[in-house]
Write a structure and sequence with these properties.
This is Alginate lyase domain-containing protein. It contains nine helices and four strands. By secondary structure, the protein is mostly helical. It has one domain. β3 and β4 form a beta hairpin. α1 packs antiparallel against α2.
Length: about 230
C-alpha cells in the first residue's frame, strides 16, 4: 500500500503541485511529501524513492528544495554564524517552525541511511534553524521582502511568534552535540520547549487537540537527546 497508494500521491504532488504555479505551495507542503517519500523508500528498501526525495531536496523546483526553503543568509553580529531566512518567515511562525520539524525528520532519516543532508551546503538547515529559533525566542532577526506569485511579504510575521513545537531535541543533538557546532539559539529553543513540557519534549496531542498538535511525532528527548 505504501508504494502503490501513498508514494504515487507524494510523487504526483512534487511533480505537478496540483496544477498550481510552482511557487504557490509553501515549503511545508513539499517537505512533508519529501519526508513521506523518503520514509517509504527506506521501509520498502527501494533506493529509487530515497534518491528521488534527496534529489528534489537538493535541486527541486518547489519551495521544499533547500535553496528555496532557506533562501536568504545573513551573518550574525558577534558570533559570525549564519542565520537563514525561511520561506515561511513572513507568513506566520506556526508554519515557519513547522518547516524545521519536517526537515529535521527528513535529514535524520537520510543521515541514518548514510546521506548527510544536515551538512549539505555548509549546514544550511542549521542556519535556518538558528534564525527561526532566535526570532521565536523574542530576539530580532534581519528580514528581506519575500514574494511569490500570490503574495508579497515585506515584514517578518509576528503571528504565532513563540510557538512551542517539539523539534529542537533532534536538531540540537545533531548540530550542537554530535558535530559540536554553534547551535546556541536552537539549544535555547529546545530548552524552552523542554521546560514547557515539564522536563521533556511531549508528543502528539500535547501541543493542542487540533491537527497542528500532531504535525510532528515529538518525544525528541527520549529519541535524540545526547547531552545531559
Amino acid at each position: 500500500m505504501l508504494k502503490t497508494v501513498f508514494y504515487p500521491m507524494n510523487h504526483s504532488f512534487l511533480t505537478n503541485h496540483n496544477g498550481a504555479k510552482i511557487d504557490h505551495y509553501w515549503a511545508n507542503w513539499d517537505l512533508c511529501n519529501l519526508a513521506s517519500m523518503h520514509a517509504i523508500g527506506v521501509l520498502a528498501d527501494d533506493s529509487s524513492l530515497v534518491n528521488e526525495a534527496i534529489t528534489y531536496f537538493k535541486s527541486g523546483s518547489g519551495n521544499g528544495a533547500i535553496d528555496k526553503f532557506i533562501w536568504k543568509l545573513y551573518t550574525e553580529a558577534g558570533s559570525s554564524k549564519s542565520l537563514g531566512q525561511g520561506q515561511e518567515a513572513g507568513r506566520d511562525q506556526g508554519h515557519a517552525t513547522l518547516d524545521f520539524a519536517l526537515v529535521g525528520v527528513l535529514a535524520q532519516q537520510s543521515y541514518n541511511q548514510g546521506n548527510d543532508l544536515f551538512g549539505y551546503l555548509s549546514n544550511k538547515i542549521l542556519a535556518g534553524s538558528e534564525y527561526m529559533a532566535k526570532y521565536n525566542l523574542g530576539q530580532d532577526v534581519p528580514y528581506t521582502t519575500h514574494s511569490n506569485s500570490d503574495v508579497t511579504q515585506t515584514l517578518i510575521s509576528t503571528g504565532s511568534r513563540g510557538t512551542i513545537r517539539p523539534m529542537g531535541e533532534l536538531l540540537y543533538a545533531h548540530y550542537g552535540v554530535l558535530k559540536g557546532l554553534n547551535a546556541s539559539w536552537t539549544k535555547a529553543y529546545r530548552d524552552l520547549v523542554v521546560s514547557n513540557g515539564g522536563g521533556a519534549e511531549g508528543g502528539g496531542g500535547d501541543y493542542g487537540s487540533t491537527s497542528g498538535g500532531y504535525d510532528q511525532l515529538g518525544f525528541g528527548t527520549v529519541l535524540y537527546r545526547l547531552d545531559a
